[in-house]
Amino acid sequence: MDPTTLNCAECASKLSELLEGFLTDAYNDDSWRDLELIAQHLANSLRKRHGPEDYHTPLGSTTLPQDLTSLLGVALNGAPIPDDARAPAVLEILRVGANLCVDHDQNRGNLLEAGFPQAVVSLLEGYSELAPSSPRANPLPLSISHLEVIKTAIGVLLNTSLGFNSVKFRLISLEVAMTLVRLSSALYPVGSWMRCTTNLFPDDLAPEEAPILIAESWNIRISLSNWAWRLITELRDDEHPLFDPQVLPYLVQPLIAFTPPLLTAPPPPNFAHPSPLRTNLLQADFELLSDSCSQLESLALDVEDIRLSLARGFLFPAEHQDVPCLLAMLDFIEQGSYAPLWYVQHEASFSMADVRNQEKAFDDCKAAVIKAVVEMSGEDKNTDVLVDGSDPTKPGGSYVSRLVNWIRNFVLGGMHGNARDDLVICATLSLGNLMRRELQSTILLSPPHNIAQLLSSEVLLSRSTDIKLKHGVIGLLKHLSQASCNSAPNRVALSNANVIDRVLASGVLDERSDAMADVVQVNAIGIVKHLCNGSFDNSLKVILPAEIDSPPPTGLSQVLSLVKRSDKVAIKSEGTRIIVNLVKSLWSNDSPKEYRSVEEIQVRQRKRDKAITVLLSPSCTEALVALLGRSLKYPVLVNEAVVALSLLSTHRDGGSLVLRAIVAPLPAEVMPGIPNSMTIPATPSTSSEAESPSIWSPGARHRPPQNRALDHLVYVLRNVSKNDDAAGLRSAATSYPNEVRANVCSLFGQVTRHTSGGDVDALKEEVKPVLEDLSRHSQGLGREMLGNAAKRVLDMWAQA
């Protein structure tokens, strides 16, 4: 019988008849050849989806989907994979299934209901059991017929799942992605053709057949790996990761292949010269590298177990079957490069345009691995694993030492000596994620690392430094300065390295950096804020101009300019907190050291007086009252602004300056949009709560109209908000702690101590009733501090 004379329906009927014969033992093994030919003809006929006649829909409604599943089971006869005799028939059964559902959701559903995709997954799992338990350098020997079966089985899963979620979800639940990775890695280890010549088949080949069959084997292996990763990409689901840590040893194999010594090894004799096959192999290697890097990045971003496993494996190789995954990633970042054979000029090789595209794509691969390393370093649970203090010769451990060495080598290379800023970006971002506590920061700031000296070098922080590099460097410095707030040696190390000077001179606070440097500017502000806190010398560096001819703008002027022009609340608020710390530092006692001479003490006092004069400016007081105005939700910020204004008011020239700022209208950007109908209640809260456990003030929709800092301050004192009940009031004593309200009282007393005039009279008239109520109702239950503060102000006003 010639199967080519049959139409599709007749072929399907014959397959059903053959199945019945196999199940009843009516047919022997010779009939598998008939099945192969019939299925082959049917598969060929179904390749075209949109022909003159629709065969797909009627065939999908017959028993064909179930027959295909049953035939596959009979062909395997209980074995995980077919024997050599039945492999060609299995291939054609798979081809029928693959072509039956091309662009046909109804048939995809019919095949799923018949269990065909599930049976195909089991078949692939059977082949995967032939692979070693861990990745190997050489490809798994397999005949052409079995390679074709695997390739077509993957094609079935691709066709059934494309755009069809029911199959997609079933494949995810069967964990087919890991099976595909194991098969792809076993059958086509990236770069294996550079080491392997004929070890592709289970049996020896005849010399005359070897070149042709070897080329065919490589081409099939390339295709099935490509299809496997295409299917993995289709199955990718952000909410349900496809992989767990066991995939990591497989994902780093392409990275190892693109890193010396494998990268720079000469090709074997049979691939010593350019050919279309060699170009295909080079392209396949790179595509698998790209797929692996993409997976590493997404898994590190989304899966905690992946991040934890990478760190554990760095110390305990058995975590990944003795494959050093994180080390391979670091080696790839540092040493990985473009394949040398890309640049061999030949008609069968890549064009120069192709090479340029691949170079750019390769750089993207490195960027993906860098992101994975940075994310892994940012996992809190990894800090104690990656920062290892057990080896005194490598403080912080091998991981920390290697990252620091990347930074050191870059600095030693000088301004024009290297182009590896990607290593510094990876190192600074990773260390910044790790160094969030004092203990870890001390390791970096102490010998032998002395990282503050490196980070403050002109090579890393100059006006011409790329903003991406500044982002990493300034971010790390911010974490170091923040974690060192309570460590005098760490603060000294940062100060001696002139970190503040270098940050202010780097241009990151300039207007030209605004468009792309919001995060960098916030971090730079954080450095200055933390290092000025309680530091007289650092505060002078920010306030006073450098003692040189034509000094650049001072740090304070840069901060004030940035705060004024920025529309980012974080920049405005954090920038103003620098002023708060400057004020507190200059108003604190600069404890004299024994070695200081009288002359030196006098010089420091003159600098203090000069710096205080600079701070006593409308620009500083206006910034402070703006911080107060926009921060009603944050009592901590309200308190900082109040304390700084109070300290400024203690100066003979400060009271009137602060008073004018308090009673003047606030800038439009900090004025709340509240209907004018909302009025301030006449009496303050008398809640029995002694202290606020919450830091939140009433919501904006309850807030009365406040156009001046004075109105905000009175609002803080009252500590009430509007309600819809009949009384119109409710207690809001949980909004502002009594300590903050007591500080507001002190501000009113201080600002009116040495001032007079209409503004003072108006302030007293508005504030006095509130203070009187607080004085009467703030006794007992731990509220004496607030009542006493109000009473002291009233007593002072009464004596005036």
Automatic annotation (TrEMBL):
Gene Ontology MF terms: guanyl-nucleotide exchange factor activity
Signal peptide feature range: none
InterPro entries membership: ARM-like, ARM-type_fold, Armadillo, RAP1GDS1
SUPFAM superfamilies noted in UniProt: ARM repeat
Keywords from the named record: Cytoplasm, Endoplasmic reticulum, Mitochondrion
Alphabetical list of Gene3D superfamilies matching this protein: Leucine-rich Repeat Variant
The keyword Endoplasmic reticulum appears for this protein: yes
GO annotations of cellular component type: cytosol; endoplasmic reticulum; mitochondrion
Biased amino acid composition, Low complexity: 681-694
UniProt region (Disordered), positions on chain: 680-705
Designated name of the protein: Uncharacterized protein
Subcellular location per the Swiss-Prot or TrEMBL entry: Cytoplasm, Cytosol; Endoplasmic reticulum; Mitochondrion
Main location, first listed in the record: cytoplasm
